[in-house]
Amino acid sequence: MSVIENLPPVRGILKENENIGKRSFFGIEGYAEVLFVPEDIDDLVFFLKNLPKEVKVTVLGAMSNVLIRSGGVPGIVIMLGKWFDKVFVEDDILEVGAAVNCSKLSAAAVDNDLGGLEFLAGIPGTVGGAIRMNAGCYGADISGVLVECEGVSFSGRIKWYKNADSDFDYRTSKISSNLIVTRAWFRGVRGVNSSITRKVNEMITTRRKTQPLDQRSCGSAFKNPEGKKAWELIDAAGCRGLKNGGAMISEKHCNFIINTGNATADDIEDLGESVAKKVFDNSGIQLEWEIVRLGNRRENNETGNLYGLSGNDPLR
Ligand SMILES: Cc1cc2nc3c(=O)[nH]c(=O)nc-3n(C[C@H](O)[C@H](O)[C@H](O)COP(=O)(O)OP(=O)(O)OC[C@H]3O[C@@H](n4cnc5c(N)ncnc54)[C@H](O)[C@@H]3O)c2cc1C
Q: Is the pTM of this model over 0.85?
């Protein structure tokens, strides 16, 4: 029986065989067995409480840090829509929905003369994804500005995590992987608008100079090993510009894997694996993927898509 036939009734959107990969930053085909976009938090809680326990759940944000594997993602993929895309500011606290883009959060801070969130201006993900990944750059990360977050567990319970209890570390935290972050509170530092704006602009300019922003990528492919830069290790292993099918190591920033136009998820993953091997052979250091790889690879004898074809974008 197909998963969609056994799901609780919802007010939001349910779509079978959705090509979610096309909307990822890699822009590569990859299917969700069922996509669910809840109408609001009550819809999400009701759905999760009544979802058959054996159905696998995956949550996605802007898909700026994920690779959807060629065989697609089984079970339910949840994406938060408009209801979760709101920002409220009171004094030095910004209350934001998890679907808010990091650049929108940073802009709200600037508008209210609040500093400390400038680094988020160039991170293209959502607040939910940024909390999960403890996203950061230029010496700052989420752990430095988050006060608290709210989420819904995969079994439908609303939970809160205080920053101090979350054990944030480099691109990870103790926040459960079975949690859908739904809302968060950040604290800014009152400052002078012109200097906050200047800092944002400097960071954006540096990013434009050093990253291939005009090409399709999901940011840094690998985490920086302790005390090292992944891009330097990749460069030293001779991988700058290396290609596999339609995937390529960026000439501009060699920790970025780019889709040159017709890459498949397998091209990207295989290129990453071969880079990691070359780095290991050259330096003895094992790189760890920063990009989150989701779903299953298509088997050699499978043709077409595991979950079929569909068209419209349910989030628009
Ligand atoms: C050009 C470019 C530059 C980038 N620069 C940076 C950078 O400087 N620093 C940096 O840290 N990252 C950077 N990234 C990577 C990426 O933008 C961040 O990791 C971002 O935080 C991911 O957010 P997302 O909404 O896109 O998450 P997704 O890619 O959709 O998901 C990433 C992970 O978060 C989980 N997730 C998503 N939403 C939720 C939620 N609501 N609740 C719980 N878990 C969730 C997913 O399950 C997945 O495990 C860059 C990416 C690109 C394309």
A: yes
